[in-house]
Amino acid sequence: MISENNTFMLAFFFLFCFAAAIQLSYWLWFYLTPYLYKRSETEVGKEPVSVIICARNEADNLRNFLPAVLEQDYPSYEVIVVNDCSEDSSYDILGQLLIKYPHLRISSINKDPKFTHNKKFAQFIGIKAASNDILVFTDADCQPVSNKWLSYMTSNFDNKTDFVLGYGGYFTEKGFLNRYIRLDSMFIAMQYIGMALRGIPYMGVGRNLAYRRSLFFRSKGFGAHNHTISGDDDLFVNSNSSKSNTRVEFRPESHTRSVPSSTTAEFIKQKQRHFTTPKFYKTWHKLLLFLEPFTRMLFYLMFAVVVSELYLWPYAIAVFGLRLIIQIVVLTLAQKRFNEQGLLFFSLFFDIFSPAINGVLYFTSFRNRPGRNTWK
Question: What is the 3-state secondary structure (H, E, C) of 14-49?
Fold first, then answer.
């Protein structure tokens, strides 16, 4: 006769195996896909393009990074910088660049104490000012890693394509926080790019994103989510992308790098802002995004319980080891694909603790979220 304790332990063991099966399906079906993806060689983009960058008090970043955008090896493009109520020397920097680069265009929004607005308004001004149908977006603190960035991003557009999702990583710096930010960014890319390749596009990042101007106005722009403080990138993709109209681009020459948060408080604030948008995702997407971290926590918790009680522990260790080996292999391949180095050893800490950290940041984002007109 099975004792009550053994009944509970058997249930825990089955929960552990269930969580492991879900985890393995994510790692092998979604996260491995970016490495396995073999794109057909296409010509470089040739259609006229408008690059849109919104900036508020970004003088140093505009000086350091905007020239790399303006010096792309591309036959016909304009760069629109929306200088949104800047109070630093952004106007002077842009004026100097305007003399050297005739394809730079500047749209200015003057500060009005009676009217406050979020980044979506600045984005809308840039889109409205664009002369071309293909729009490529990046941020003022971002730098393309090569002068082929624009060519690679736009090479994906054909008469069926409305969205191209790119990869935007962060500059490598010293310290624990930088590794965490870079690994977090890479893991998110493994998710949204892997899911897009499997026919489930759910988001993109404004650091490296392209879509059609005609689609923006046809779908009424940010109207459905204009009340949110974030989401000018991921919510627009979530609402309008599909398996048939979305492609991905993550060849090394197409990457962008951004300035990472320099303090933990700054990073927390940024993550909390980002976490205000997932609740507006499609239900199916929210379920997929919840299931992975939930089963990851369940996996580790049930493993600790089963092994501590020495119940079928050789089998539990074998399953744990299988997932660990697959995780190491996939992360190694992902580092190669996204050109991120030095993160593998750190990934074990990230894998165990990031669901709890993100869970805390998610729930505190509702309590501590800034006002609706916060720009960034």
Answer: HHHHHHHHHHHHHHHHHHCHHHHCCCCCCCCCCCCE
